[in-house]
Amino acid sequence: MGRNSTSPEITSPVDDNGDLGFKPIRDRFPLKRNPNSHSHAHHESHKDHDEKLDRHWRGRLHHNRPNRKGFSFKGTYLFYGAVVFAVLVFVVASVLLQSTMTSVFRQGRESGKALREGLKMGGSLRFVPVGLLRRFGNESGVGRLRLENRVGIRAPRLAIILGNMRKDPLSLMVFTVLKSLRELGYVLKIYAVEKGKAHSLWEQIGGQVSTISLNSTGRVDWSNYEGIIVDSLEAKEVISSLMQEPFCSIPLIWIVQEDLLAKRLPLYVEMGWENLVVEWRSSFSRADIVVYPDFSLPMLYSVLDTGNFFVIPGSPVNVWGAESYIKTHSKDQLRKDNGVHMDDLVVLVVGSSIFYDELSLDYAVAMHAIGPLLRKFSRKDADGSFKFVFLCGNSTDGYNDALEGVASHLGLPRGSLTHYGLDGDVNSVLLRADIILHGSFQDEQGFPPLLVRAMTFGIPVIAPDLPIITKYVIDGVHGLIFKKHKPDTLMRAFSLLVSKRELSKFAHVIASSGKLLAKNMLASDCVSGYAKLLENVLHFPSYASLPIPVSHLQKHTWEWNLFGKEIEIPNQSSGTRKSSVVYVLEEEFALLGSNMSTSQNETEILSLENPTELDWTVLREIENSEELERREKDELEGRTERGLGSWDEIYRNARRSEKLKFEPNERDEGELERIGQSLCIYEIYTGAGASPFLHHGSLYRGLSLIVKFVIFELVRWISDHPTFLLSQSPKARRSRSDDVDAVNRLPLLNDTFYKDLLCEFGGMFSISNRVDNIHKVPWIGFQSWHATGRKIAPSSPTAPQSVEKRGGASRDNEKAVSLSIKAEKVLEETIQAETEGDVVYYWSKVDLDNGVAGGNDILTFWSLCDILNGGRCRTVFGDSFRQMYGLPPDIEALPPMPEDGGKWSALHSWVMPTPSFLEFMMFSRIFVDSLDSLHNDTSNTKCLLGSSELEKKHCYCRMLELLVNVWAYHSARRMVYIDPISGSLEEQHLIEERKGFMWVKYFNITLLKSMDEDLAEAADDNEYPREEWLWPLTGEVHWQGIYEREREERYRQKMDKKRKTKEKLLERQKYGYRQKTLGRRT
């Protein structure tokens, strides 16, 4: 499907008119939260700026020194005075850090320049998925569906694909979300790429977990589910099977929590592995939504963005990491190892997790404003040692020297001001701090992850009143909030936390409350975010119940009780890392690259031996000489008399000529096996994804509905469907000799609109079109590919039954719906012995034995049809039937169906005599044309038989699936159900019991033939009843006038042939027979 590109927006301060400025960025640019190094050239470009800035500070300090003559910094007042300069130094350091990132923006296009110009002080860079939000706004979601009268006979289903089953924070987040989704009413089926320790936990919410591999993914019918959720990059190989028809339109949500691939993408670009980047981008484009738990990840993956990136903030990874670190590290030992005394008070200053160019002015203005207020407290005396640590940038940026210079000017002891980079042991720096100060005034979209870790460590936090922080943190309860435009509030916060050179009791209370808050702070928002996303993305069928509204969800916590006993850091050993799909693909592409380079070298060697012009001249002379000799030899052989030879020579020559025949004219093994058989079952499929569900052998033959596109249509589709080439490639269709190309036999199916409307019925129309050319056996059958992929429950008088359908087909979890070998044998033997009457055998049934939503009402045929078709099956069927036969409005037009509890056919899985099939197709073509005329009416521009987008796309399919039951019942055909496993036969709806209920007169073959001839005559005379007339496009157009015209044409051709033969004989009698001269004329 086409997608609008997702682009971040720059939110600038309010302008003079009071409006907010929004400037979309169309081009992506790479950003790194923790860059490891910066280019030397870029460092030199800012060297002069750094030196001027340093001289500026030195000059100011030196100039102000006489004004503070006799003034001494002591004790706690030294601490307050140093806070001012410490934060100012942090601003200077951030300036140096952010200036080094300018080169990153310079690598972009002119949009990067526009970004830096538009991002003013007080503004912020925000990730806004414009295309997805617009799409969600246009689609009303389930809100509109809840206002409709719906009868759900089953819960919505989700397929969950797990990349691994480890007990780690990534699995904890997914497990918590899925458990909550199950509480909302979703039914989960879990598939895993590999087994792991959490196998038993996943079985608690999804039942039996199925392990799938690259070879077994083709055996899963993904169309059974309303949506698919993939939890990690490790399930990438499964995505490939979802990129093929008929699975490429199923909603797919891909959760990407790892940053491993994001770190490797710049390496791919550097090494020229563009094909590998394209491979990952193609996989990402298959997902309807790619969900990230952090707002920085979409920027890191921006090279793979196709407009489907979305962020649902919330993950226990920071809490998990902090708790894991506490288990193996001691705060006292860390302080001791890093030269921090037990009596020292360490203040750690952190900033935004992502820095942008020219944002440091916000820091400078704010900290300069609180400077005078902090200097007041430096007049009091106290003892103590204070250390200020700045956590930003990288450890190799050389900020420590600048900080030591500032400390010496302040008269502070050596080591009072230190810097640590984000590329080091961040947990160690956080754990040995006493107070955490969030110094950034930039409004962020997600809660700062460093604050979550600090709160988990039990460290009191001071932060500005940013909306994302005040949303979760209560001032004075979980931390201290200061107003960024009121410096006295920051002073008050420090005074509340520090008492007599140590942390106050109030600080410990706040730290404890903050730790409890951080444990599950983002869990509820994460769960509700995924629940709302599913409501906007999934297509809920009319027969599926809707999930419980998100507002009914209670406040959730991460499932620590199930995962908490094994808090551990995920294994990062080289063996585990190298087993990741990211590294596996790298090795494959590296090997492919070496083979390509070897091939190029061989080509270069061969190019040195290219033939010259003289060589080509000699070659042409040799070929001309050989051709002359061959012609002379043929002429001599033609003049020489030869005997016929022995029978062995004749036999060998005949065999040799057969081998030289063009391959498509040969009969394949399957066609030879079908000769002499009485039955052929056509399995209808729509793409390469359905091929593994098809049978092989003489009894079955594939019927392909894959559409052929002309060049200009293909170019248009490629731009909107990145995965279209894969799903429509030549490999999507099986070998020509095995399968019948339905699109080639019926050109109507080239129109994807009608192909989607008719579904399997389009394949049946193609077989009935000139059936003698393709089907020459007395019995014919059909079976949808869904029959092999779907299951039915074993019959049990005590087991609760449930109707599990998509498009009206039965499904459960125990036995296959397709015929077993035993049932196939029974069916063949039965039809060979059948000599009297018309019989319809079917093996996929619609289960009507259960009530609706736990009630006592039994589902009848028409009530089930209503449920499957948006509650309008009876109305639309009756109107179509009335228009088909021209019935007056006061006459009932809905054929009655019995309520005897019998079985009805589903999934187009039935067998009947070939003449009966042609009669059924005659009736169906007229009915479908009448049905189509109702939907083409100007007053009814939408699908009348469905509510979701998927149901509207396949509007006629669910009603047509049940049409064979109405035709067989009212045309007095015997209806026999054959058990697909045991092969036992059971006749349904006995003909004796139908008397008085059947509308035989409307299904009489004589009446249908007369109606068919009338329509054919109108089509032959170009008297179309409406502009878009479907009937002539669904099969043969034939009536008596066409037959007479064809007979006259054959007679005319016969007479022309006789006339030419007579003229030829007369010419020979007049001039004699003249043989052409052999050889050349001299």
TrEMBL record:
Compositionally biased region (Basic and acidic residues): 803-815
DNA-binding in keyword set: no
InterPro entries per UniProt: Glyco_trans_1
Coiled-coil stretches: none
Transmembrane segment boundaries: 77-97
Biased composition (Basic residues): 1071-1082
Residue stretches of biased makeup (Polar residues): 1-10
Protein name stated in the entry: Glycosyl transferase family 1 domain-containing protein
